[in-house]
Amino acid sequence: MKILGHVAFLLLLGGIWCQNNRNAKAGGKSKKSGAAQGGDVAQAAPAVDVSPGSTESSRGTGGSAEAGQEAAAGARTAGQQTDDMRLHFLKNNQVTCNDGTAAGFYLKEIRGSRRWLLFLEGGWCCYSKETCDSRYQNIPRLMSSSGWPQTKRGSGILSSQAEENPHWHNANIVFIPYCSSDVWSGTGLAPTPPPRPRQGREKERDRNVNTNTTEYTFMGSLIIREVIKDLIPKGIKQAKVVMLSGTSAGGTGVLLNIERVASQLEQLGAEAQVRGLVDSGWFLESKQQRPANCPETVSCSPEDAIKIGLRLWNGVVPDRCRQLYKRGEEWQCFFGHKLYSTLTTPLFVVQWLFDEEQLRVENIYIGGQSMSEGQWQYIQNLGVELKTSLRGVSAVFAPSCLSHTVITKSNWMSFQVKGTSLPRALHCWDRSLEATRNNRTPAKGCPFHLVDTCQWPQCNPTCPALVDQATQQELTLLQMLAAMGLDLQRLGLDPQGDADSLASMVSNGG
């Protein structure tokens, strides 16, 4: 009997090993075949930090797989519960990333918690065959799940550590990777035109990439819908609060989908209060004059890209906003200052008044090689225009700084407006919504409408430091402007007297 027992035990081990081996192979399926993936991915694998850079296409892939793997392994060795979010592929394998691989989400469950934080990753978009092919070649993780790690670790508002995330660390955290390239608006397959003939170096380049790129699927809005469906067994129907958050294109995705998410949860019978957190997704239209229909990809303004992309993505916008505009003008609903007043779900907007991505659209790079007086004037005007556009927003945190995204940065607690940090402002907003819901008077002295009153970039003393791109040295604003070739004396600034020149700017900031 002992021998039979040993044989049975070995057979059982062999079966488990084979099953794990099959799971590993299924997780590595390539383009199109990945659509058949479904359910959870449970095997041990590297953890990757969800760092600020990992959410932006222009910032690289972000995170350190080796460091994350060591941390996760150490936690497992010590027998501790890890802080990692674990990858789950969507059960509906018809809703996919651009290349047909399975879409999914990362989940960190907190047993007993009735608070849910859903996060939409950012990374701009693609809007034509050429831009999508380039994106697929250069940033494949934003179009395919084939290389996604099995676990991620959150930072900022996605952290499970109370020291870093005082008010949301004990919520269920859901990170939804961006792999639809449609600003989270797409609803299905839209064919692209046949490829144009390639010549010379283009032929050589195309031999080095997957050439089956004549069509992509754009399902960003559907991915959000399916994630919520898959969270029902996890307890989201019993949620007290569900906050849909996102940075950059993910922030715009919050604006576009928050009403639909609230409606879906209501139809499921959930009694959760749904709210949205928009970080650096409140863009303004470009001021540059560009050729009609932007024949060259580099000449496309955000509004032109969205006009073209909406047709490609079969994109949707909130109903009440869509009704304001005639057919073909729905692209205007991608801009928060036009969309906000039509939304009924509570929203909190976080927006740097001198957003680096807004400047990049105008070909202005802080810390780059040069800047004209006209560009400096544009920067100053941008702060005024963003401030004006936020005037009617009830819950807002808008520092007068040069930066882009904040809520997923590990130092997000250090930034303040008028003496109040962003986590504190969010907590005040949370308390106010709870008080209103329970017919109580909101507490006084707990602000959540915070917009810097000083006029210049970096006039808030808590702003992130400016870094010279060539030397990686930290510089003051005046040092940066001088390094970029501006004549400070001609502009009425004293290059020798930083403190005096900035005193009036700082007086109203912070």
Topology:
Blueprint: H1 2-27, E1 39-40, E2 47-50, H2 65-77, E3 84-89, E4 104-108, E5 115-120, H3 129-138, E6 151-154, E7 172-176, E8 188-191, H4 201-207, E9 215-218, H5 220-230, E10 241-247, H6 249-267, E11 273-279, H7 302-313, H8 319-322, H9 336-339, E12 347-350, E13 354-355, H10 356-361, H11 373-389, E14 396-398, E15 402-403, E16 416-417, E17 420-421, H12 422-437, E18 449-451, E19 466-467, E20 474-475, H13 477-483, H14 498-506
Describe the structure.
Helix content is 32%, strand content 15%. It has 510 residues and is of the alpha/beta class. The protein has one domain: Rossmann fold (3-Layer(aba) Sandwich). Strands 1, 2, 3, 4, 5, 6, 7, 10, 11, 12, 14 and 18 form a twelve-stranded mixed β-sheet that branches. It has a two-stranded antiparallel ribbon with strand order 8-9. Strand 10 (241-247), helix 6 (249-267) and strand 11 form a beta-alpha-beta unit. Helix 5 crosses helix 6. The model is unreliable at 1-81, 191-213 and 498-510 (pLDDT under 50).
CATH class descriptor name: Alpha Beta
- Helix/strand-derived class? alpha/beta
- Radius of gyration based on Cα positions: 24 Å
Uncertain spans, ≥5 residues at pLDDT below 50? 1-81, 191-213, 498-510
- Total beta strands: 20
Number of helices: 14
Gap between N and C termini: 77 Å
Number of structurally distinct domains: 1
CATH architecture: 3-Layer(aba) Sandwich
| Overall shape | globular
- The percent range for strand residues is 5-15%
**Mean pLDDT level:** 80
**Which range best describes the helical content: under 10%, 10-25%, 25-40%, 40-55%, 55-70% or over 70%?**
25-40%
In the CATH scheme, what's the topology name?
Rossmann fold
Give the biggest sheet: 12 strands, mixed
InterPro entries: PAE/NOTUM (IPR004963)
Region (Disordered): 27-80, 187-208
Keywords: Signal
Biased composition (Basic and acidic residues): 199-208
